[in-house]
Write a structure and sequence with these properties.
Blueprint: H1 18-48, H2 52-56, H3 68-71, H4 79-98, H5 101-122, H6 133-149, H7 153-166, H8 182-198
Amino acid sequence: MTLQGGFRSGDPRHFGTEAFYASIGRAFVAMCAVVPVLFLVEALDVGLGIDLDLAGGIIPRRIDGLDGVLFSPFLHADFNHLYSNSVPLILLGTFVLAAGFRRFLWSTLVVVLVSGLGVWFTGSPNSVVVGASGVIFGYLGILITRGIVERSWWNFGVVLLVGLLYGWQLLGVLPTDERISWQGHLFGLVGGVVAAILFRRRRAGVDPYPVDPPLALP
């Protein structure tokens, strides 16, 4: 069966199809599975007293703190910090992941690198930066930019929803609280914009890359 615009009824990229809703559902389940891993890491850090934050956090402009670019998104200052990041991570991550697993992985990598390196180059050398908020702002940047560059009603709808729920969080890119790494938020947002442009879905017949398959979980 073919729908208007050449989309098959089973196409997960087409809003309203069963495959579309199934892709959203699988993405939501996958993101919900990520958060318990973060809680386990924090529980081990607190329970064993191994100070993972210092070992794996970003220490700006210090070589021994450069590995935190990759590890810091998995670490949090405390459980309250983790609680505050959990819901937006699940919600925003679900919409990013539903657009394709490969796009999600590559986009997340770009966000992590841009956010982490931005913090490492511009943050205070007397600080240790941890948390997934840079990734969250990156996902926010991805969704907003996709709505513009891919020009689809679905992406514009996501942008509207994200704007209503988390638009106020854009204030986090400003240096309003010395305890909060505004650099991580700002560069995360920039990384999301870059990732959305790099891995945007081209129009049919123009895309030089193979179509990203829908998310499939075992």
